[in-house]
Amino acid sequence: MTNAHETEPVSVAVARFRQDVDRLVAEIGHRLVGQRAALDSVVTALLAGGHALLEGVPGLGKTLLVRTLADAMDLSFSRIQFTPDLMPSDVTGTHILVDTDGGGRRLEFQRGPIFANLVLADEINRATPKTQSALLEAMQEQSVTVGKTTHPLPPPFFVLATQNPIEMEGTYPLPEAQLDRFFFKVRVPYPSRDDLHQIVERTTGDDDAAVRPVLTGERLLELRGIVRQVPIARPIQDYAVRLVQATHPGPDAIADVMRAVRYGSSPRGAQALVMAAKIAALRDGRLTPSFQDVRQAAVPALAHRVLLNFEGEADGLRTDDLIREIVSQLPE
Amino acid sequence: MGRIRRRRRWIAAVQGAAATVALAGPLLVAITIVLPRTAGVTIDVRQLAVALLLAAGIGAGARAARRISLHSCARAVDRALGAERSGDCVLAAVALGETSSAPTAFVAAVTTDAAARARQVAPKRAVPPPSPRSLVLAAAAIGLVLAVGLLPVARSRASTAPKSRAKGSAPTNNPVLPIQLPGAALDAEREDVRRATVAAREAADRELAALARRFEALLSDLSHRGLDAGAAVARLSNLVDDAQSVTDESVAAKAAARAGAGVLATARGVGTDGAAFAAEIGKMPAKVPGASEAAGQAAERLAARGETGRATLARAAQAAAAALAAGGAGSGVGPGTNNRDGDGSVEHRRRLDHQSESPGSTKDLPAGDGARNPQRRLQQLRRDLEQAGANCATNPDTCRRNADQTGRALADLHRQGRTAEARQRLAEAARQLLDRIRRGGAVSGEREQLRRFAKAARGAGRGDTGAADPNPANRGEQGGAESPGGGGIPLTETAGEDGDGDSGPQFASPSDSEGGAPPPTTAGSSEGSGNAVAGSGIGAEPGGPVLGSRSPAGTAAGRDTPAQVRDDPAGSSRAAIIGGAAAGGFASAEYRRVFDDYHTAVEESLDATVVPPGRRYLVRRYFQLIRPRTP
Q1: Which of B85, B111, B118, B81 lies closest to A285, judged by CA?
Q2: Span A148-197, pLDDT tens digits
Q3: With a CB-CB cutoff of 8 Å, which residues 66-125 of chain B face chain A?
Q4: Which ipTM score applies to this complex?
Q5: Which chain B residues are Cβ-neighbours of A10 within 8 angstroms?
């Protein structure tokens, strides 16, 4: 990995980072109306090398966002529509029998759609757990093992999954282990009235907003390298760690956590918090994250990692609100 | 960062000092107030100031010695920069500097950036002055300490310095212990001052007026500003001494004052209305100034009708002389004198003759001599009056002239006597107040007793048998024996309503009635059965000695004194009037008359007997509390 300071001064590297990311966001914004928070979260997950789970009702632009992101980046893109009858091999690929030049036959691995830089797992909760788990290794190890052979996925590898929180019939909620592998869970809100006007105007006319690639895969990897070089002060890192610990029921936990939480966030939550904070600092032109950066990342990074107990579920408690409550009560 | 740390240390020191002073101030005030009462140790203002300074120094040192971390300084700079601009960069730079052994390019950049940002922040902006709350509290505490410590000392110096020069040494109990009495507790003394002022104005007695003014100022200081005990005692001692110095010389003049009014009227009436006047003068009790004056006025009224007679004139002069002799010789002690024809005063005259050493006319006496030896002057006046009476039989003109001269001399003596009486009363009041202050803590308890006493006087106390008796007059005076030591003066009154003679309400000595037993009838012509069943009164209540009961000291100093009060044959009975006043308030005209009689009797008793000062005060206070009110 190339260190930024070896090639250019830190300030220049940070400025270019900021410039590239802003350009990417702006390019996506040419097609995607609104949804700035969701877009930022997705970009953050992309820069952190994680994966994002987009949750929202149909028609809010989740798929469009991912497709536009792929268009704006010079990366390979594949889309997998998850259905109940989708098999794991449909995702990862399978061995097929092929004729050789010498007239023989041999089994050859046919790569599945997961072999792409950018994978859209649409309506991921409609597939069976078996198929969903096919993504586990790919998402965490960025490799696929079929038979006795492990096939590395091309970097950068980025999974964007979507799910519909309303139509729960015939769905298979993601297991905790898989949820934990998503860097961010992003709620896609309903657009505002102005945004709706703009969406209608763009989609009902003949003006097809073209999106051109503004970021290559190599540059994305460079940007990820810069992010990892950003130092974080111990007090701020400690704040992130305490935030994660505060999601666990325990003697120091707040009342709601004690009452409604079964399990708190995994250490991946702290990793996500710190990485997201670093990216936020860089995108803001700063060289190190602040407490506020950690606070901003708390909900998308931790909400899907907190498992409610029966009482919490029965009360209709939302983990987003719970995380906000923890943030408001945790001192710096 | 070092500058910010120094500023924070400095502010912490100030805050520590202020907080310590704010806490220690009230504590010191409490100690200043409590210590003299409990341990008898007084604290002056210098000691208070040193203690405050010491507390401030300790507080400042303790706070300033605390460790001030670089992180907190960095946070202060970040706050000053603002969350948007800073992004906690200074804190991050400090923390990274502590943890990074080999700074990376990013860490170096972070440090450089933070240093550049921190330079933009002045220490004053990063660490603003603390909120003045602690300083305000500290200032209030200092003010409180100074008020407690300085004011009593200043008053003590202002009031004791001139007295110390005048008297050499003044008794002081606690120089810095402030004494402030409620205004109502000094009403009796104010009344004495008022009387003295009136008497001084009538007699043009500047010395008495000055004494009254001094006493009034002292009372005002005690009730409004408060005085420390030392100053109050010194001023009262001086006042008692000054009032006492001339009081003893005027005892005889005071006696003349009692009879003077009547004798003056006698002199004026001689030659004009002898018969009627003789009758009036015969009824005149020499000890009662009001009665004397009434007799004199009656004589003047009769004189206006032109009734004359030489024989009766002679008897009138004799009677006046006898009255004069009784007043001067008895000095107010002894039974009432009924000298209808002058024969009853033979013994008095004999004694006076025996005491008289330098006969001569009153006109020959220098004015100052009378003031120095009024007893002697009184005797001379008596002889002049007898001579005038003898002349009346032969030469009415000479009689009238002599009587006139005698009357003027008596009038002068009368005025002198009144001022002497007022002066003595003033001295007595000052002495009682001095005694109260010297007793120190008894003031508040005494006030409480008086409050209960007043409550009882209004009929709001608790009694047992008194409530069972329908006659209010027969109810035992109820005292509030609500707490140990509480009590009241068992004043009982028997009304002989069932008898066919004169009702004879008796104002009995407190020691005579304990538990409501009917007091013995000691004077008057009461033939009534007096079947009053008094209430249990204070004496029957548990807890503490009865206020009216005779203490060992009281036994030695006091004695029972029957007092005569007259009843009005016409109108409501005295018992009914008092009962009505107790039930409906002290504002009726009838009650005012009854009260005047009793009050006069009480004053006579107090003057004639050796009542301990504390009891004397209580008696006066009681009558002050049940005084007639304005309707």
Answers
A1: B85
A2: 888 898 888 999 998 887 766 778 888 888 888 899 999 888 888 988 88
A3: 71, 83, 86-89, 91-96, 98-100, 104-110, 113
A4: 0.74
A5: 105-106, 108-109
